[in-house]
Predict the 3D structure of the following.
Amino acid sequence: MFLRPGLVDALRYTYDLNYLIFKHMGMRVLRSLEVLKLGVVNYLDALKLQEKLVLDRKSHRICDTLLSLQHPPTYTVGKRQTVHNLLIPQSELEQIGAELHYTQRGGDITFHGPHQAILYPIISLRDMGIGARSYVEKMELTMIEMAAQYGVKACPGLAGETGVWVGERKIGAIGVRISNGITSHGLAFNIDPDLSYFRHIVPCGIADKEVTSLRRETDSVLPPEEIMQEQLVSCFARIFGYDNLIWKEDASVVTDGTE
């Protein structure tokens, strides 16, 4: 079934109008979140997909969307370009099987790799009625709730210490970008990554602090990682108040239309 562009615009306008009417009347609007389960995705492919989805979300072509994935070994630097916190020459990255990419997110240098659960929300903060600080706090709560399911007490960092911590050890990182109220980039929760990669950086620009993982902190038996990624998504949905999750596993979205 194909809809004429004019009809698509009319339907979009009707949806937005109904949303505003319900909101004005104080009636609760059921909120949906589309979740793309993408497996292991190259960092640049994921970045291109985020950029496309941000444009689609700004123009109301899609609803709030969440990317759930992992990356091959990758170091990323935020918009402050603090590459001085990379402790080995860039020429040696290939020897340890890692890449380096510069991004426009907030935060310092960090590492992404296998066995680390990553969520990239493409959501409208304006529709939600929250600001950047509340958004980051909810991202922290998402990882804190996830850790608690395995008996691990995590908490936000002290002033100047972003992310989520277990004592003096960091278990989850946050680096976000917000453009016209639409989010991208997101959080990384350490399930059981190779922590040796973190020795090559000053993680998130915070010296003299360790990085840890759920595997290291819990006595619980961990289920398969696919289940754990779904648990993290469920924590996110609860914290952010989504009523309906629409799960999709079509990996073709990583490359389709992102050139």
Remarks:
- The first helix runs from residue 5 to 24.
- Residues 7 and 13 are 10 Å apart (CA to CA).
